[in-house]
Amino acid sequence: MKESTLNEAVRMWYGGASQRRIAKTLRVSRRTVGRLLARHEKARDGLPWEDRKQRRSLLDPFEEKISELVARYPHITAVRLHEELCRGGFAGGYTIVKDRLRDIRPQTGRAPVIRFETGPAMQAQMDYSTYEIEFTSEGLRRVHAFSYILALLPAAVHPVCGVAGLHNHRARAYPRI
After folding, report:
1. 97 touches 85 (CB < 8 A)
2. For residue 144, what is the enclosing H or E element?
3. Three-state secondary-structure class, residue 94
4. Smallest Cα–Cα separation from 129: which of 164, 95, 102, 87?
5. What are the phi and psi torsion angles at 60 (to 5°)?
6. β-bridge partners, 62
């Protein structure tokens, strides 16, 4: 439950709204509103809030086996791990194994791209590629495309592009401005 939902429920409660009205406004059940308000009252009185005990997972008896397999095979797939656990007597499904494996493995995020600006005409980008194009008069021909983009201003890019086509083994550029 979001902290903002709890805060809004408490604010509405102190404003005189009924639990039914709070539940309808916040789109939660009346029992949830009652639990939120009870949690708030206990926190105000300085008493600890006892959360429900978490249920035991079907994977808890196999935790040692999972750790051993992940340590031995760091890139083990969830499918393979599920097969190994089933051989050892696991009766659960694939999804619970996949979720546990996702929690165990360290999350490797991609490094963010750092944006940088250059001065006018200090940076350019180019691209080259070949294409097979069907011409009406000449038939299938290989065409070479080259583009060169010069950054004239830091915030704006003015492309100066050209397409080079092979015609009688001579490259001709067709500038586009």
Report:
1. yes
2. strand 139-150
3. helix
4. 164
5. -55, -45
6. none
Nearest C-alpha neighbor of 160 from the set 152, 151, 145, 149: 149
How is the chain split into domains, by residue range? Answer: 3-45, 60-104, 124-176
- Side chain identity at 18, as an amino acid letter? S
Q: Which residue has the tokens 């546990």?
A: 100
Whether the CB-CB separation of 62 and 88 falls below 8 Å is answered with yes
pTM of this prediction exceeds 0.85: no
Reading the chain (177 residues) residue by residue, the pLDDT tens digits are: 688 888 899 999 999 999 999 999 999 999 999 988 988 888 888 877 676 677 888 999 999 999 999 999 988 999 999 999 999 999 999 999 999 999 888 777 778 888 777 777 777 888 999 999 998 888 899 999 998 887 765 444 444 444 443 343 334 444 444
- Which amino acid, residue 34? G
DSSP 88-105: TT--S-HHHHHHHHHHHS
**Amino acid, single-letter form, for residue 97:** V
